[in-house]
Write a structure and sequence with these properties.
Blueprint: H1 2-8, H2 11-29, H3 31-41, H4 59-66, E1 73-77, H5 84-90, H6 95-102, E2 119-124, E3 130-136, E4 141-149, E5 152-159, E6 162-172, H7 177-183, H8 188-197, E7 213-223, E8 226-240, E9 243-249, E10 255-256, H9 281-285, H10 289-296, E11 299-302, E12 308-310, E13 315-323, E14 327-334, E15 338-345, E16 347-348, E17 355-356, E18 361-364, E19 375-382, E20 385-387, H11 402-430
Antiparallel strand pairs: 1-2, 2-3, 3-4, 4-5, 6-7, 7-8, 8-9, 9-10, 11-19, 12-18, 13-14, 13-17, 14-15, 15-19, 16-18, 19-20
Helix pairs in contact: 5-6
The structure holds zinc ion.
């Protein structure tokens, strides 16, 4: 488990972890040396108390740190079910102070909606009275509450500018998409959104091949020049088995081809998330999917029992039952022409007659009926004829609204040139 977690970490994190490991290794060699040194110099004595230096962030704190009785900011983690009153009680502050603080103006009302995991900084004087409070609302906003007079507090919100910069990543798939994406420094969030953006065109579970490649331009957010978090993917290109797909983000939050057709289509190529599918190409070469498809008119996705299976498209459940061949199975009718079939579930999640949305959970992978091991057997029928869901030609996606077309074309042109630029940069680096 630990190993798997380590493998999934971005390389940056791995480097950080190995850095820590090295640091602790070095520590092992230090103790005997430093113990001798302190004995010789006789600076530290056993049983005597010493002031530990404070972490100083501001001139005010510096002044306090130099004082005889320094005030120290104390951090209180917000846990589930916490309220300001509960935290103040832990900090040995009075209910009166809770009342005064929560009435310190409009901004102070934000303290009524604290979320678990966040933390509250309190500066308490030597009489045990609250001097000031600070609470990070977001990466860019901090709430400050300061004592004015005896029983009155004032609140203010400090806002910092969020800078957005573009970064890019590029990779070629050797044996699986996840590893190639991690190697390209893509975050888990970006890996999943990339698979989502192209999920209508590419089967990420079984359709990727060695030599497939991707090229991504994404946002990164900074505050005071410090990296805070990654933002949206604004443009991406994926080359799958020689076919290139390009997606551009528009203001409406959706992705379109450079020509302005929605990436969103009536069917997802795979009814399971690729992250659940054992995706070693080598293994697959011994069991060519194509051959298996011809043999039994469906695609098999080997996955652990309990893996969620989703509806490939919007539709209506026309069958949800059990028999000894198909096990627990679900059939969905999509419009007039299309039917999708999902077999061998361990458990079904929908009933006959129910309307389902694309991506909605319909059951869990199992091995009920005639199945040698847990897998999803998936069939795709067009006008009653079995077709390969991974290659069948599907209805063209909706184009962007005419009124937006000109504006989108401008964005698309810029993004495509950014994608091409990153390709040139990478070519130059790798030369
Ligand atoms: Zn099958």
């Amino acid at each position: 488990m630990v190993q798997r977690t380590l493998k999934r970490l971005p390389t940056k994190h791995k480097a950080l972890l190995s850095g820590f490991a090295l640091f602790f290794l070095l520590l092992l060699f230090i103790p005997t040396e430093s113990a001798k040194a302190s004995k010789n110099s006789q600076i530290l004595e056993v049983g005597k108390r010493y002031d530990v230096p404070l972490i100083v962030n501001t001139p005010k704190q510096l002044a306090q740190a130099l004082d005889d009785e320094p005030l120290q900011w104390q951090t209180f983690k917000v846990t589930k079910g916490d309220t300001l009153a509960k935290i103040f009680k832990r900090a040995k502050l009075t209910p009166q102070e809770t009342y005064y603080v929560s009435n310190a103006g409009k901004d102070a009302k934000r303290l009524l909606k604290m979320r678990p995991g966040q933390s509250l900084q309190l500066l308490i004087d030597d009489q045990g009275k609250l001097e000031s409070l600070s609470y990070e609302l977001s990466a860019t906003q901090t709430l400050h509450i300061k004592r004015q007079e005896a029983n009155s507090f004032a609140s203010s919100i400090e806002s910092k500018q969020l800078d957005t910069r573009l970064n890019y990543a590029q990779g070629e798939i050797k044996n699986n998409f996840w590893n190639a994406a991690v190697k390209a420094n893509l975050s888990e969030k970006h890996i999943m959104s990339l698979a989502g953006i192209f999920g209508w065109d590419i089967d990420f579970a079984l359709g990727l091949r060695e030599g497939d490649s991707f090229n991504v331009v994404f946002e990164e957010h900074f505050v005071d020049g410090e990296y805070v978090e990654s933002g949206k993917i604004v443009a991406a290109e994926f080359i799958n088995q020689g076919e290139a797909f390009t997606a551009i983000l528009y203001d409406d939050g959706n992705y379109y081809t450079p020509e302005g057709r929605s990436m969103r289509k009536s069917f997802l190529r795979a009814p399971v998330n690729f992250k659940y599918i054992s995706s070693s190409f080598k293994k697959r070469r011994f069991h060519p999917v194509q051959k298996r498809w011809k043999a039994h008119r469906g695609v098999d996705y080997a996955a652990n029992k309990g893996t969620p299976v989703i509806a490939a498209g919007d539709g209506k459940v026309i069958r949800s039952t059990y028999d000894k061949y198909n096990g627990n199975h679900v059939f969905i009718q999509h419009g007039e022409k299309y039917v999708t079939k999902y077999l061998h579930f361990t458990k079904r999640a929908v009933k006959k007659g129910q309307t389902v949305k694309q991506g909605q959970l319909i059951g869990y992978v199992g091995s009920t009926g005639l199945a040698s091991g847990p897998h999803l057997h998936y069939e795709f029928l067009v006008n009653g004829v079995h077709r390969n869901p991974r290659t069948v030609t599907l209805p063209k996606a909706q184009p962007i609204a005419k009124s937006k077309a000109a504006q989108f074309a401008k964005i698309a042109e810029k993004r495509v040139s950014q994608l091409n630029n990153t390709k040139r940069i990478m070519l130059a680096i790798n030369r």
